Amino acid sequence: MILVMDIGNTNIKTAVYDGKDLVKSWRVSTNTSYTSDEYGILMNGMFRQASLSMDGLAGIMISSVVPSINFTIEHMCHDYFSLEPHFVGPGLKTGINILYENPKELGTDRICNAVAAYAQYGSPCIFIDFGTATSFGAISGRGNFLGGCILTGVRLARDAVVGGTSKLPYFELNLPERVIGRSTVANLQSGLLYGYVGQVNYLVSRIKEEMDAPNASVVATGGFAGQIAKQTDAIEHVDSLLTLKGVRMIYERNFMT
């Protein structure tokens, strides 16, 4: 079995795989003030709850977009799993050709999404990750990662409009039944969330046009993937484990014989 981790700005997603089979997955908040022991105690509790042994792992693979936490997580892996973790980064075999102008700028979560989307949903394909930022990625019919676009995530957009105004209230991210709201909160909810649906529709359409791939598959992942996908036909698949699957695939291609 192996442990894979996707360290994002808001959450750390973690899963144990036995070969290609998911054993258990978890999600905890990203907290850069935690020590390695605090993360180790969290991991110990999650493994115990799932009746898993922390001594039974063959390896650990990590994708991280929060460099300041990597040292802490690395030490946690040493102290609590007695393993040296591998990090997704330059020099590893991914199975895709990255056509970014500077591949070192590309977030490792997007690399993992591209790897898993290409392997599981074929090509051409588009992935959308509704995380702290919402990112789109385009993969050609030849399996080339062409690039994509990034926009503000749903929660960041909510926090910005509330924090940047004097009278607009904090609101929950629940989708109202109608776009035409009859209260300030309903106006904010419909504008933000239906606005995201409109962005998805337009950006997917434009990406397909630029790829010359009208039949490209579209897969969404991240916290708001299910909610947005219900409102648009542009998204064909929702895969909450897409990034972690990509982390696992990269481990298999580099560290398994």
Summarize this structure briefly.
The chain is of the alpha/beta class.
Question: What this model shows, in words?
Answer:
With 257 residues, the chain is of the alpha/beta class. The chain has two domains: 2-87, ATPase, nucleotide binding domain (Nucleotidyltransferase, domain 5); 97-246, ATPase, nucleotide binding domain (Nucleotidyltransferase, domain 5, 2-Layer Sandwich). The chain contains seven helices and eleven strands. The strands form two sheets. A six-stranded mixed sheet has the order 6-9-8-7-10-11, with helices on both faces. Helix 3 (108-121) crosses helix 7. The protein is globular. 35% of the residues are buried.
* Domains (count): 2
- What would the CATH topology of the largest domain be? Nucleotidyltransferase, domain 5
The appropriate CATH architecture of the largest domain is 2-Layer Sandwich
Rg, rounded, reads 19 Å
Number of strands: 11
Helix content: 25-40%
Order of helices and strands: EEEHEHEEHEEEHHEHEH
For the biggest sheet, the summary is: 6 strands, mixed
Shape summary = globular
Integer average pLDDT: 95
CATH H-level homologous superfamily name of the largest domain: ATPase, nucleotide binding domain
Annotate the secondary structure layout.
Blueprint: E1 2-7, E2 11-18, E3 21-29, H1 36-49, E4 59-64, H2 67-81, E5 86-87, E6 97-98, H3 108-121, E7 125-130, E8 133-139, E9 144-152, H4 154-163, H5 184-211, E10 217-222, H6 225-229, E11 237-238, H7 242-255
Parallel strand pairs: 1-4, 4-5, 6-9, 7-10, 10-11
Antiparallel strand pairs: 1-2, 2-3, 7-8, 8-9
